[in-house]
Amino acid sequence: MKLTRRSTLWLMLVGLAQSLLPKSVFARTDDIRHILPSVTATGISVSVSTLASRARLDLMVGDLRVPGVRRDSHGRYWSFSAEELAPETEYSLQLLDEHGALGSPWPLRTFPDATTMPERFRLLAFTCAGGADGFGIPGKQLFKPHAFRRNLFDAALAEKPDAAVAIGDHIYWDLRGGGMPPIGRRSKLIKLLAGWYLRFMYGEFDRTKPILGTENEAVLTAIGDEQIADLYGTRFKSTPMFFVSDDHDYFENDDAEEDLVTFPANAFSKAAFRAVASLYYPPLPDGPSAATDRAFGLLRYGRLFEGALFDCAGHLTLGEEAAGLVPPEVELWLRERARNSPAAHFALVPSHPMGWTAGKWREWYPDVVAPKGYEGVVQVELMADVGDGRLTTDAQKYLWQSGWWSQHQRLLQTLSQRAGHRLVFSGDIHAQGAVNILASGSVEPLPSPVQSILVGPVGTSDMTWASAARGVTASTPDWLTTEDIVPTREVNGFTLLEFTPEGASVRLADCGGYDRSLGEDGGIRAVDEFKVSPVAG
User: Which of 75, 187, 244, 485 is deepest in the core (most CB within 10 A)?
Assistant: First the structure.
Protein backbone atom coordinates (compact mmCIF):
# COMPACT_ATOMS: atom_id res chain seq x y z
CA MET A 1 0.00 0.00 0.00
CA LYS A 2 1.37 3.42 -0.93
CA LEU A 3 -0.25 6.48 0.62
CA THR A 4 0.15 9.61 -1.49
CA ARG A 5 -0.16 13.20 -0.31
CA ARG A 6 -3.43 13.54 -2.26
CA SER A 7 -5.04 10.38 -0.77
CA THR A 8 -4.04 11.31 2.76
CA LEU A 9 -5.47 14.83 2.38
CA TRP A 10 -8.66 13.27 1.00
CA LEU A 11 -8.98 11.08 4.09
CA MET A 12 -8.55 14.06 6.40
CA LEU A 13 -11.09 16.19 4.55
CA VAL A 14 -13.70 13.44 4.67
CA GLY A 15 -13.19 13.01 8.41
CA LEU A 16 -13.30 16.75 8.99
CA ALA A 17 -16.54 17.10 7.03
CA GLN A 18 -18.17 14.33 9.07
CA SER A 19 -17.05 15.89 12.33
CA LEU A 20 -18.57 19.27 11.41
CA LEU A 21 -22.01 17.92 10.49
CA PRO A 22 -24.77 18.60 13.03
CA LYS A 23 -24.83 16.01 15.80
CA SER A 24 -28.48 15.33 15.05
CA VAL A 25 -27.39 13.63 11.83
CA PHE A 26 -25.86 10.83 13.91
CA ALA A 27 -28.19 11.00 16.94
CA ARG A 28 -29.97 7.86 18.06
CA THR A 29 -33.53 7.76 19.28
CA ASP A 30 -32.53 5.07 21.78
CA ASP A 31 -30.02 6.09 24.45
CA ILE A 32 -28.69 2.52 24.64
CA ARG A 33 -25.62 2.28 22.45
CA HIS A 34 -24.80 -1.41 22.70
CA ILE A 35 -25.79 -4.60 24.53
CA LEU A 36 -23.65 -7.74 24.45
CA PRO A 37 -24.69 -10.67 26.67
CA SER A 38 -23.27 -14.05 27.63
CA VAL A 39 -24.81 -16.92 29.57
CA THR A 40 -24.08 -20.22 31.30
CA ALA A 41 -26.59 -22.74 32.65
CA THR A 42 -27.03 -20.71 35.83
CA GLY A 43 -25.74 -17.24 35.04
CA ILE A 44 -26.13 -14.20 32.81
CA SER A 45 -23.50 -11.52 32.10
CA VAL A 46 -24.29 -8.37 30.13
CA SER A 47 -22.16 -5.42 28.96
CA VAL A 48 -23.95 -2.17 28.08
CA SER A 49 -23.04 1.33 26.98
CA THR A 50 -25.25 4.41 26.73
CA LEU A 51 -24.92 7.75 24.99
CA ALA A 52 -25.52 9.76 28.17
CA SER A 53 -23.72 9.37 31.50
CA ARG A 54 -25.57 7.91 34.45
CA ALA A 55 -24.98 7.79 38.17
CA ARG A 56 -26.59 4.35 38.40
CA LEU A 57 -27.79 1.64 36.04
CA ASP A 58 -29.51 -1.58 37.07
CA LEU A 59 -30.70 -4.64 35.18
CA MET A 60 -33.86 -6.56 35.96
CA VAL A 61 -33.43 -10.28 35.23
CA GLY A 62 -36.94 -11.54 35.68
CA ASP A 63 -37.81 -10.45 39.21
CA LEU A 64 -34.14 -10.10 40.22
CA ARG A 65 -32.67 -6.59 40.32
CA VAL A 66 -28.92 -6.61 39.52
CA PRO A 67 -26.92 -3.44 40.30
CA GLY A 68 -24.62 -2.39 37.48
CA VAL A 69 -20.87 -2.13 37.88
CA ARG A 70 -19.60 1.10 36.34
CA ARG A 71 -16.60 0.37 34.10
CA ASP A 72 -15.55 3.88 33.05
CA SER A 73 -14.99 7.31 34.59
CA HIS A 74 -18.21 8.90 33.34
CA GLY A 75 -20.99 6.36 33.85
CA ARG A 76 -21.52 5.32 30.22
CA TYR A 77 -20.25 1.72 30.38
CA TRP A 78 -21.79 -0.86 32.71
CA SER A 79 -21.63 -4.58 33.32
CA PHE A 80 -24.06 -6.90 35.07
CA SER A 81 -23.72 -10.41 36.45
CA ALA A 82 -26.66 -12.50 37.68
CA GLU A 83 -25.98 -15.91 39.26
CA GLU A 84 -28.01 -18.80 40.66
CA LEU A 85 -30.53 -18.66 37.83
CA ALA A 86 -32.59 -21.56 36.53
CA PRO A 87 -31.10 -23.55 33.61
CA GLU A 88 -32.74 -23.52 30.19
CA THR A 89 -35.03 -20.66 31.18
CA GLU A 90 -35.98 -17.55 29.21
CA TYR A 91 -35.70 -14.39 31.31
CA SER A 92 -37.04 -10.95 30.49
CA LEU A 93 -34.30 -8.32 30.89
CA GLN A 94 -34.91 -4.61 31.47
CA LEU A 95 -32.46 -1.77 32.08
CA LEU A 96 -33.37 0.78 34.77
CA ASP A 97 -31.79 4.12 35.56
CA GLU A 98 -32.73 6.73 38.16
CA HIS A 99 -35.75 7.75 36.05
CA GLY A 100 -37.14 4.25 35.54
CA ALA A 101 -37.11 1.88 32.57
CA LEU A 102 -34.48 2.55 29.91
CA GLY A 103 -35.36 1.09 26.53
CA SER A 104 -37.63 -1.92 26.06
CA PRO A 105 -37.36 -5.34 27.75
CA TRP A 106 -35.76 -8.18 25.81
CA PRO A 107 -35.53 -11.98 26.22
CA LEU A 108 -32.38 -13.97 27.01
CA ARG A 109 -32.25 -17.70 27.69
CA THR A 110 -29.84 -19.57 29.96
CA PHE A 111 -28.11 -22.71 28.69
CA PRO A 112 -29.26 -26.24 29.60
CA ASP A 113 -28.00 -27.88 32.78
CA ALA A 114 -24.70 -29.76 32.50
CA THR A 115 -26.43 -33.10 33.15
CA THR A 116 -28.99 -32.83 30.35
CA MET A 117 -28.73 -33.82 26.67
CA PRO A 118 -30.40 -31.11 24.54
CA GLU A 119 -31.94 -32.01 21.22
CA ARG A 120 -29.99 -29.38 19.28
CA PHE A 121 -27.44 -26.60 19.57
CA ARG A 122 -26.80 -24.14 16.75
CA LEU A 123 -23.60 -22.08 17.06
CA LEU A 124 -22.56 -19.08 14.97
CA ALA A 125 -18.84 -18.38 14.55
CA PHE A 126 -16.97 -15.56 12.79
CA THR A 127 -13.68 -13.68 13.02
CA CYS A 128 -12.05 -10.31 12.38
CA ALA A 129 -15.11 -8.08 12.78
CA GLY A 130 -13.09 -5.04 13.91
CA GLY A 131 -11.79 -2.07 11.97
CA ALA A 132 -12.89 1.51 11.37
CA ASP A 133 -16.06 1.99 9.34
CA GLY A 134 -15.02 1.64 5.69
CA PHE A 135 -11.58 3.18 6.38
CA GLY A 136 -9.22 3.36 3.41
CA ILE A 137 -7.87 5.55 0.65
CA PRO A 138 -9.45 6.48 -2.70
CA GLY A 139 -10.07 3.24 -4.56
CA LYS A 140 -8.95 1.02 -1.67
CA GLN A 141 -10.44 -0.07 1.65
CA LEU A 142 -8.83 -1.50 4.76
CA PHE A 143 -12.17 -2.57 6.26
CA LYS A 144 -15.69 -3.05 4.95
CA PRO A 145 -18.28 -0.39 5.81
CA HIS A 146 -20.42 -1.08 8.85
CA ALA A 147 -23.44 -1.46 6.57
CA PHE A 148 -21.82 -4.51 4.93
CA ARG A 149 -20.85 -6.04 8.29
CA ARG A 150 -24.28 -5.43 9.82
CA ASN A 151 -25.98 -7.07 6.83
CA LEU A 152 -23.70 -10.06 7.32
CA PHE A 153 -24.62 -10.20 11.03
CA ASP A 154 -28.31 -9.93 10.21
CA ALA A 155 -28.04 -12.77 7.69
CA ALA A 156 -26.34 -14.90 10.35
CA LEU A 157 -28.88 -14.03 13.05
CA ALA A 158 -31.71 -14.92 10.68
CA GLU A 159 -30.48 -18.52 11.08
CA LYS A 160 -31.48 -18.26 14.78
CA PRO A 161 -28.24 -19.42 16.44
CA ASP A 162 -28.38 -20.33 20.13
CA ALA A 163 -25.02 -18.60 20.71
CA ALA A 164 -22.18 -16.92 18.83
CA VAL A 165 -18.38 -16.97 19.07
CA ALA A 166 -16.43 -13.91 17.86
CA ILE A 167 -12.91 -15.20 17.31
CA GLY A 168 -10.36 -12.43 17.68
CA ASP A 169 -9.51 -9.03 16.25
CA HIS A 170 -12.46 -7.07 17.60
CA ILE A 171 -10.21 -3.98 17.44
CA TYR A 172 -7.74 -2.87 14.76
CA TRP A 173 -5.53 -0.03 15.97
CA ASP A 174 -1.94 -1.27 15.75
CA LEU A 175 0.39 1.03 17.67
CA ARG A 176 3.77 -0.63 16.93
CA GLY A 177 5.03 0.61 20.26
CA GLY A 178 3.92 4.21 19.64
CA GLY A 179 1.03 6.47 20.52
CA MET A 180 -0.99 5.91 17.35
CA PRO A 181 -0.98 3.71 14.24
CA PRO A 182 2.12 4.55 12.17
CA ILE A 183 0.33 5.03 8.86
CA GLY A 184 2.84 6.21 6.29
CA ARG A 185 5.78 5.41 8.55
CA ARG A 186 8.06 5.12 5.49
CA SER A 187 7.27 8.70 4.49
CA LYS A 188 7.81 11.60 6.90
CA LEU A 189 5.29 13.81 5.09
CA ILE A 190 2.54 11.17 4.96
CA LYS A 191 3.21 10.23 8.56
CA LEU A 192 2.86 13.89 9.58
CA LEU A 193 -0.41 14.39 7.68
CA ALA A 194 -1.88 11.04 8.74
CA GLY A 195 -0.85 11.71 12.32
CA TRP A 196 -2.68 15.05 12.29
CA TYR A 197 -5.82 13.40 10.90
CA LEU A 198 -5.82 10.58 13.48
CA ARG A 199 -5.17 12.98 16.36
CA PHE A 200 -8.05 15.15 15.20
CA MET A 201 -10.47 12.22 14.84
CA TYR A 202 -9.47 10.05 17.80
CA GLY A 203 -6.69 11.63 19.87
CA GLU A 204 -3.39 10.02 20.83
CA PHE A 205 -2.42 7.68 23.65
CA ASP A 206 0.03 8.80 26.30
CA ARG A 207 1.83 5.57 27.16
CA THR A 208 3.14 7.01 30.43
CA LYS A 209 -0.39 7.23 31.89
CA PRO A 210 -3.10 4.70 32.82
CA ILE A 211 -5.80 3.94 30.27
CA LEU A 212 -8.84 4.78 32.40
CA GLY A 213 -9.17 7.98 34.35
CA THR A 214 -6.85 9.96 32.05
CA GLU A 215 -7.16 11.51 28.61
CA ASN A 216 -6.33 8.01 27.28
CA GLU A 217 -9.87 6.95 28.16
CA ALA A 218 -11.42 9.29 25.58
CA VAL A 219 -9.07 7.94 22.89
CA LEU A 220 -9.87 4.35 23.78
CA THR A 221 -13.64 4.85 23.82
CA ALA A 222 -13.58 6.77 20.52
CA ILE A 223 -11.97 3.69 18.97
CA GLY A 224 -14.06 1.11 20.81
CA ASP A 225 -17.37 2.89 20.26
CA GLU A 226 -16.83 2.89 16.52
CA GLN A 227 -15.39 -0.61 16.15
CA ILE A 228 -17.51 -2.50 18.71
CA ALA A 229 -20.46 -0.57 20.18
CA ASP A 230 -21.64 1.05 16.94
CA LEU A 231 -21.01 -2.11 14.91
CA TYR A 232 -22.89 -4.59 17.12
CA GLY A 233 -25.43 -2.18 18.60
CA THR A 234 -28.21 -4.18 20.24
CA ARG A 235 -28.76 -6.80 17.52
CA PHE A 236 -27.09 -9.56 19.62
CA LYS A 237 -28.89 -8.73 22.88
CA SER A 238 -30.78 -12.06 22.86
CA THR A 239 -27.87 -14.14 21.47
CA PRO A 240 -25.20 -15.15 24.01
CA MET A 241 -21.77 -13.99 22.80
CA PHE A 242 -18.32 -15.40 23.56
CA PHE A 243 -15.40 -13.13 22.63
CA VAL A 244 -12.03 -14.80 22.03
CA SER A 245 -9.14 -12.33 21.93
CA ASP A 246 -6.19 -12.27 19.51
CA ASP A 247 -3.20 -10.07 18.62
CA HIS A 248 -5.00 -6.95 17.36
CA ASP A 249 -7.08 -6.84 20.53
CA TYR A 250 -3.81 -5.90 22.26
CA PHE A 251 -3.45 -2.92 19.88
CA GLU A 252 -0.64 -4.60 17.95
CA ASN A 253 -0.10 -6.81 14.94
CA ASP A 254 2.10 -9.83 15.57
CA ASP A 255 5.29 -8.36 14.10
CA ALA A 256 8.86 -9.57 14.65
CA GLU A 257 11.56 -7.31 13.24
CA GLU A 258 15.01 -6.35 14.46
CA ASP A 259 13.81 -2.95 15.69
CA LEU A 260 10.46 -4.06 17.13
CA VAL A 261 8.92 -7.28 18.45
CA THR A 262 5.32 -6.67 19.47
CA PHE A 263 4.75 -9.81 21.58
CA PRO A 264 4.82 -10.86 24.38
CA ALA A 265 2.47 -7.94 24.94
CA ASN A 266 3.89 -5.11 27.06
CA ALA A 267 2.13 -3.50 30.01
CA PHE A 268 0.43 -0.79 27.93
CA SER A 269 -0.93 -3.27 25.37
CA LYS A 270 -2.26 -5.50 28.14
CA ALA A 271 -3.89 -2.55 29.88
CA ALA A 272 -5.53 -1.38 26.63
CA PHE A 273 -6.81 -4.89 25.97
CA ARG A 274 -8.24 -5.27 29.47
CA ALA A 275 -9.91 -1.86 29.26
CA VAL A 276 -11.64 -2.60 25.95
CA ALA A 277 -12.79 -6.02 27.16
CA SER A 278 -14.09 -4.60 30.43
CA LEU A 279 -15.99 -1.79 28.74
CA TYR A 280 -17.54 -3.64 25.83
CA TYR A 281 -18.07 -7.40 26.24
CA PRO A 282 -18.56 -10.12 28.89
CA PRO A 283 -15.78 -12.39 30.20
CA LEU A 284 -15.38 -16.05 29.29
CA PRO A 285 -16.84 -18.53 31.81
CA ASP A 286 -15.39 -21.69 33.35
CA GLY A 287 -11.74 -21.10 32.43
CA PRO A 288 -8.67 -22.36 34.30
CA SER A 289 -8.36 -19.14 36.32
CA ALA A 290 -10.50 -16.10 37.13
CA ALA A 291 -7.43 -13.96 36.40
CA THR A 292 -7.48 -15.04 32.73
CA ASP A 293 -11.24 -14.97 32.09
CA ARG A 294 -10.71 -12.65 29.11
CA ALA A 295 -8.39 -15.13 27.41
CA PHE A 296 -9.47 -18.69 28.23
CA GLY A 297 -12.85 -20.26 28.91
CA LEU A 298 -15.47 -22.85 28.02
CA LEU A 299 -18.69 -22.70 26.06
CA ARG A 300 -20.79 -25.60 27.42
CA TYR A 301 -24.28 -26.51 26.26
CA GLY A 302 -25.51 -29.33 28.48
CA ARG A 303 -23.83 -32.63 27.63
CA LEU A 304 -24.23 -31.91 23.92
CA PHE A 305 -21.33 -29.54 23.20
CA GLU A 306 -18.20 -28.14 24.79
CA GLY A 307 -15.82 -25.68 23.15
CA ALA A 308 -12.49 -24.75 24.74
CA LEU A 309 -11.83 -21.12 23.77
CA PHE A 310 -8.26 -19.80 23.92
CA ASP A 311 -6.26 -16.70 23.06
CA CYS A 312 -3.01 -17.53 21.19
CA ALA A 313 -1.47 -14.03 21.47
CA GLY A 314 -1.76 -12.31 24.81
CA HIS A 315 -0.01 -14.99 26.85
CA LEU A 316 2.50 -16.35 24.33
CA THR A 317 6.07 -16.91 25.47
CA LEU A 318 9.49 -16.99 23.82
CA GLY A 319 12.26 -19.42 24.71
CA GLU A 320 12.72 -21.76 21.74
CA GLU A 321 11.53 -25.27 22.70
CA ALA A 322 10.11 -24.01 26.02
CA ALA A 323 7.96 -21.40 24.24
CA GLY A 324 4.20 -21.66 23.79
CA LEU A 325 1.29 -19.75 22.30
CA VAL A 326 -0.47 -20.51 25.59
CA PRO A 327 1.16 -21.03 29.01
CA PRO A 328 2.00 -24.62 30.09
CA GLU A 329 -0.77 -24.70 32.68
CA VAL A 330 -3.33 -23.64 30.07
CA GLU A 331 -2.10 -26.28 27.65
CA LEU A 332 -2.56 -28.92 30.36
CA TRP A 333 -6.07 -27.61 30.99
CA LEU A 334 -6.92 -27.75 27.26
CA ARG A 335 -5.62 -31.29 26.93
CA GLU A 336 -7.50 -32.40 30.04
CA ARG A 337 -10.74 -30.97 28.64
CA ALA A 338 -10.12 -32.69 25.28
CA ARG A 339 -9.54 -36.03 26.99
CA ASN A 340 -12.19 -35.93 29.70
CA SER A 341 -15.02 -33.63 28.65
CA PRO A 342 -18.33 -35.52 28.93
CA ALA A 343 -19.78 -33.62 25.96
CA ALA A 344 -20.94 -35.56 22.90
CA HIS A 345 -19.16 -32.98 20.70
CA PHE A 346 -15.89 -31.28 21.65
CA ALA A 347 -14.02 -28.47 19.87
CA LEU A 348 -10.78 -26.61 20.31
CA VAL A 349 -11.36 -22.95 19.43
CA PRO A 350 -7.96 -21.22 19.19
CA SER A 351 -7.64 -17.61 18.11
CA HIS A 352 -4.98 -18.68 15.59
CA PRO A 353 -5.83 -21.54 13.21
CA MET A 354 -4.57 -25.08 13.06
CA GLY A 355 -4.21 -26.22 9.46
CA TRP A 356 -3.27 -23.00 7.64
CA THR A 357 -0.37 -20.60 7.25
CA ALA A 358 -0.04 -17.15 5.72
CA GLY A 359 3.62 -16.77 6.68
CA LYS A 360 2.79 -14.70 9.77
CA TRP A 361 5.29 -14.64 12.63
CA ARG A 362 3.05 -15.84 15.46
CA GLU A 363 1.90 -19.07 13.87
CA TRP A 364 2.17 -22.65 15.03
CA TYR A 365 4.19 -23.22 11.83
CA PRO A 366 7.65 -22.12 10.51
CA ASP A 367 6.45 -21.29 6.98
CA VAL A 368 7.50 -17.82 5.81
CA VAL A 369 7.19 -15.79 2.60
CA ALA A 370 10.58 -15.64 0.85
CA PRO A 371 11.94 -15.46 -2.72
CA LYS A 372 12.41 -18.80 -4.45
CA GLY A 373 15.67 -20.44 -3.41
CA TYR A 374 16.30 -18.09 -0.48
CA GLU A 375 17.50 -19.91 2.66
CA GLY A 376 18.38 -17.03 4.99
CA VAL A 377 16.45 -15.37 7.80
CA VAL A 378 13.27 -13.47 6.90
CA GLN A 379 11.73 -10.77 9.08
CA VAL A 380 7.93 -10.86 8.88
CA GLU A 381 6.49 -7.47 8.02
CA LEU A 382 3.16 -6.39 6.53
CA MET A 383 3.23 -4.87 3.03
CA ALA A 384 6.86 -5.92 2.61
CA ASP A 385 8.16 -6.20 -0.97
CA VAL A 386 9.32 -9.82 -1.33
CA GLY A 387 9.36 -9.89 -5.13
CA ASP A 388 8.43 -13.41 -6.26
CA GLY A 389 7.85 -14.46 -2.67
CA ARG A 390 6.22 -17.76 -1.81
CA LEU A 391 5.56 -19.75 1.35
CA THR A 392 8.48 -21.96 2.27
CA THR A 393 10.21 -23.68 5.18
CA ASP A 394 13.61 -23.47 3.46
CA ALA A 395 14.07 -19.91 4.75
CA GLN A 396 14.06 -19.17 8.48
CA LYS A 397 11.25 -17.14 10.03
CA TYR A 398 12.85 -14.50 12.27
CA LEU A 399 12.25 -15.25 15.97
CA TRP A 400 9.82 -18.08 15.29
CA GLN A 401 9.78 -20.48 18.26
CA SER A 402 10.05 -24.25 17.90
CA GLY A 403 8.05 -24.67 21.12
CA TRP A 404 4.98 -23.30 19.35
CA TRP A 405 5.09 -26.25 16.95
CA SER A 406 5.67 -28.73 19.79
CA GLN A 407 2.64 -27.36 21.63
CA HIS A 408 0.59 -27.66 18.43
CA GLN A 409 1.63 -31.30 18.15
CA ARG A 410 0.62 -32.14 21.71
CA LEU A 411 -2.76 -30.44 21.41
CA LEU A 412 -3.53 -31.97 18.02
CA GLN A 413 -2.45 -35.45 19.11
CA THR A 414 -4.66 -35.26 22.20
CA LEU A 415 -7.66 -34.10 20.17
CA SER A 416 -7.14 -36.75 17.48
CA GLN A 417 -7.19 -39.49 20.13
CA ARG A 418 -10.63 -38.46 21.41
CA ALA A 419 -13.49 -40.66 20.28
CA GLY A 420 -16.75 -39.26 18.98
CA HIS A 421 -17.28 -35.94 17.22
CA ARG A 422 -14.45 -33.43 17.64
CA LEU A 423 -13.08 -30.60 15.55
CA VAL A 424 -11.16 -27.32 15.51
CA PHE A 425 -12.60 -24.00 14.38
CA SER A 426 -10.74 -20.72 14.38
CA GLY A 427 -10.19 -17.38 12.68
CA ASP A 428 -7.42 -14.77 12.26
CA ILE A 429 -6.24 -15.62 8.72
CA HIS A 430 -8.65 -13.63 6.56
CA ALA A 431 -10.22 -16.52 4.68
CA GLN A 432 -12.81 -19.28 4.91
CA GLY A 433 -12.50 -23.01 4.33
CA ALA A 434 -12.36 -26.45 5.91
CA VAL A 435 -9.81 -29.28 5.82
CA ASN A 436 -9.12 -32.71 7.23
CA ILE A 437 -5.72 -32.72 8.94
CA LEU A 438 -4.36 -36.18 8.14
CA ALA A 439 -0.79 -35.93 9.37
CA SER A 440 1.19 -33.38 11.33
CA GLY A 441 4.95 -33.75 11.25
CA SER A 442 7.06 -36.28 9.42
CA VAL A 443 6.83 -39.28 11.75
CA GLU A 444 3.40 -40.82 11.15
CA PRO A 445 -0.24 -39.92 10.46
CA LEU A 446 -2.45 -38.73 13.28
CA PRO A 447 -4.35 -41.47 15.16
CA SER A 448 -7.41 -40.18 13.27
CA PRO A 449 -8.03 -37.15 11.04
CA VAL A 450 -9.04 -33.86 12.63
CA GLN A 451 -11.48 -31.57 10.84
CA SER A 452 -10.46 -27.90 11.04
CA ILE A 453 -12.52 -24.90 9.93
CA LEU A 454 -11.66 -21.30 9.09
CA VAL A 455 -14.95 -19.69 10.06
CA GLY A 456 -14.73 -16.59 7.83
CA PRO A 457 -13.96 -12.90 8.48
CA VAL A 458 -16.57 -10.16 8.74
CA GLY A 459 -14.87 -6.87 7.87
CA THR A 460 -11.92 -7.69 5.59
CA SER A 461 -11.47 -5.53 2.51
CA ASP A 462 -9.00 -4.72 -0.27
CA MET A 463 -5.82 -4.16 1.72
CA THR A 464 -6.33 -6.66 4.54
CA TRP A 465 -6.69 -9.90 2.58
CA ALA A 466 -3.55 -12.03 3.05
CA SER A 467 -2.95 -11.86 -0.69
CA ALA A 468 -2.72 -8.05 -0.45
CA ALA A 469 -1.01 -7.65 2.92
CA ARG A 470 1.43 -10.57 2.58
CA GLY A 471 1.50 -11.42 -1.11
CA VAL A 472 0.17 -14.96 -0.55
CA THR A 473 -3.15 -16.60 0.25
CA ALA A 474 -3.62 -18.86 3.26
CA SER A 475 -2.56 -22.42 2.44
CA THR A 476 -1.43 -25.73 3.95
CA PRO A 477 1.70 -25.57 6.14
CA ASP A 478 4.64 -27.55 4.77
CA TRP A 479 4.75 -29.85 7.79
CA LEU A 480 1.06 -30.86 7.54
CA THR A 481 -0.82 -33.20 5.26
CA THR A 482 -4.42 -32.11 4.67
CA GLU A 483 -7.30 -32.68 2.30
CA ASP A 484 -9.87 -30.05 1.39
CA ILE A 485 -13.43 -30.31 2.62
CA VAL A 486 -14.29 -26.78 1.47
CA PRO A 487 -11.54 -25.07 -0.58
CA THR A 488 -9.92 -22.09 1.14
CA ARG A 489 -11.07 -18.77 -0.30
CA GLU A 490 -10.66 -15.09 0.49
CA VAL A 491 -14.22 -14.07 1.26
CA ASN A 492 -16.10 -12.55 4.15
CA GLY A 493 -18.62 -14.83 5.77
CA PHE A 494 -19.57 -16.87 8.80
CA THR A 495 -19.99 -20.48 9.90
CA LEU A 496 -23.00 -22.21 11.47
CA LEU A 497 -22.31 -25.40 13.40
CA GLU A 498 -25.32 -27.51 14.32
CA PHE A 499 -25.01 -30.25 16.93
CA THR A 500 -27.48 -33.02 17.82
CA PRO A 501 -26.95 -36.15 19.93
CA GLU A 502 -26.64 -38.15 16.70
CA GLY A 503 -24.25 -35.95 14.74
CA ALA A 504 -23.03 -32.53 13.65
CA SER A 505 -23.13 -30.48 10.48
CA VAL A 506 -21.27 -27.37 9.37
CA ARG A 507 -22.47 -24.64 7.02
CA LEU A 508 -19.98 -22.09 5.64
CA ALA A 509 -21.78 -19.00 4.39
CA ASP A 510 -19.90 -17.02 1.76
CA CYS A 511 -20.85 -13.32 1.85
CA GLY A 512 -18.32 -12.15 -0.74
CA GLY A 513 -16.62 -8.81 -0.40
CA TYR A 514 -13.31 -9.59 -2.11
CA ASP A 515 -14.18 -7.79 -5.35
CA ARG A 516 -15.97 -4.54 -4.50
CA SER A 517 -16.94 -3.99 -8.12
CA LEU A 518 -19.57 -6.72 -7.66
CA GLY A 519 -21.49 -4.48 -5.27
CA GLU A 520 -22.08 -7.21 -2.67
CA ASP A 521 -23.83 -5.97 0.47
CA GLY A 522 -22.88 -8.62 3.05
CA GLY A 523 -25.80 -10.97 2.39
CA ILE A 524 -25.23 -14.67 1.80
CA ARG A 525 -23.90 -15.40 -1.68
CA ALA A 526 -23.33 -19.18 -1.44
CA VAL A 527 -23.31 -21.94 1.21
CA ASP A 528 -21.14 -25.05 1.56
CA GLU A 529 -22.29 -27.77 3.97
CA PHE A 530 -20.66 -30.94 5.31
CA LYS A 531 -21.03 -33.43 8.15
CA VAL A 532 -18.57 -33.74 11.02
CA SER A 533 -17.14 -37.25 10.82
CA PRO A 534 -17.31 -39.24 14.07
CA VAL A 535 -14.37 -41.32 15.30
CA ALA A 536 -14.91 -44.72 16.85
CA GLY A 537 -13.79 -45.27 20.43
Answer: 244
